[in-house]
């Protein structure tokens, strides 16, 4: 069975300093996959700071609130996973991308997925 995703970025952050801004956006707005296969979602991002920050992934079913999947720290070892996400999803990042992987796609994974960038305080 082919599964269609609608994929959007959760937010683009406001200016963080003189002449710079933080932003995050999906590389593709729709991704599809086949049940049982693995799938990768990709967000590109940029930040004007060189410090640490967190890269988040959420999903949203129609007419429901956002649901946290996981986050990974960049520049430090912070991380966190929702209980349902352990073993189902994983993430990796580079200096300008963050990826969310589905280990084994299921029809129930059909949802809107969001990436977000946040600077820890």
UniProtKB/TrEMBL annotation:
GO terms for biological process: adaptive immune response. InterPro entries: Ig-like_dom (IPR007110), Ig-like_dom_sf (IPR036179), Ig-like_fold (IPR013783), Ig_V-set (IPR013106), TCR_variable_region (IPR051287). One of its GO terms (cellular component) is T cell receptor complex. Residues 1-21 form the signal peptide. It comes from the Eukaryota. Keywords: Adaptive immunity, Immunity, Immunoglobulin domain, Receptor, Signal, T cell receptor. Residues 26-121 form the Ig-like domain. It comes from Myotis davidii. This is Ig-like domain-containing protein.
């Amino acid at each position: 069975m082919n599964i269609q995703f609608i994929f959007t970025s959760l937010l683009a952050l406001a200016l963080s300093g003189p002449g710079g801004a933080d932003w995050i956006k999906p590389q593709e707005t729709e991704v599809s996959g086949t049940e049982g296969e693995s799938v990768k979602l990709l967000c590109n991002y940029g930040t004007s700071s060189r410090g640490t920050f967190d890269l988040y992934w959420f999903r949203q079913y129609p007419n429901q609130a956002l649901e946290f999947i996981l986050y990974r720290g960049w520049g430090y070892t912070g991380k966190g996973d929702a209980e349902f996400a352990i073993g189902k999803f994983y993430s990796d990042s580079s200096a300008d991308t963050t990826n969310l992987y589905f280990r084994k796609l299921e029809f129930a994974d059909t949802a809107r997925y969001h990436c977000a960038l946040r600077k820890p305080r």
